[in-house]
Amino acid sequence: MSPGKRLRLTIEAKGLAHVMAGHSPLSALLVDEAGFDGVWASGFELSALHGLPDMSLMSMTQHLDMVRAMVAATTLPVVADIDTGFGNAVNVVHAVKCYEQAGAAAVVIEDKIFPKVSSLTCGGRQELAGIEEFRGKIAAAVAARRDPDFLVVARTEALIAGFGLNEALRRAAAYEAAGADMILVHSKQAVPEEIEGFAKAWSGHTPIVIVPTTYPQLTEYRIRELGNIAMVIYGNHAIRASIAAMRSTFARIRRDGSAVNADCDLVSVDDVFELQGMAEIRKIEEKFLR
Ligand code: SPV
Ligand code: MG
């Protein structure tokens, strides 16, 4: 079964897919272990992993290689964050072919102008592409996929750019008409009212995707109550958790002058071996090493 089909079936069965950010095969494995429904191949996370801001500085190849590695590491569907699609509709066609071939289940394309600036940046430049231009990109993505179950998610940044609910709805309707399978609507308000307002006002048939980073108080119960949200993406929690854990461990070792106190709070080396698949290696060694 194709990864797109698996993601569609999960949403059909559960009504709501929970997708957690990842930035490496190891993080994808941990997303799987925790019981999420998919991995978000986040541009924010991978940029941060490279010590770069999320501003279209990473190449498509860098992101694509990581998507391929994450697909190989987990059985979960991978939802690829392809930012603005790396250029115009021609670039989008190329990107969709590459990401589908890499084993992604879905791509999310946002209606900003390349090079984009992270939606979460305070006072960041948030320039939107014209509706017609972006409709062309979505139609191009839909036409380029080989598997009809591969999902093309259109992301509108209208709320992020400060254009308000009506513009977000207008854009979502245009992208639905262009063939998008889902509409991701992003908000960076500290409260969920803006997103709830969108979900209540949305009269389209295409399900909504949300990224509740700045409004984490929105509960699963409330999301289900809204009725038309099919996917929740936890956009940057893997890299933020890693930074917090590394920071506190490093500080403790510096403070104590040894690793003795920090050690008991870390995962064991055996735990890492397990994640690395060492048990399988032992079996191969026993069977084939002469
Ligand atoms: C990402 O995780 O790269 C996203 C979500 O696109 S956000 O950073 O909130 O824009
Ligand atoms: Mg992103």
From TrEMBL:
What are the EC numbers? Answer: 3.11.1.3
Name of the top EC class for this enzyme: hydrolase
Q: Which Pfam families match?
A: PEP_mutase
A Gene Ontology molecular function term for this protein is:
phosphonopyruvate hydrolase activity
Lipid metabolism found in the keyword field: no
Q: Which SUPFAM superfamilies match?
A: Phosphoenolpyruvate/pyruvate domain
Sorted keywords for this record are: Hydrolase
NCBIfam families from the UniProt entry? Pphn_pyruv_hyd (TIGR02321)
To which protein family does this belong? Belongs to the isocitrate lyase/PEP mutase superfamily. PEP mutase family.
State the protein's name.
Phosphonopyruvate hydrolase
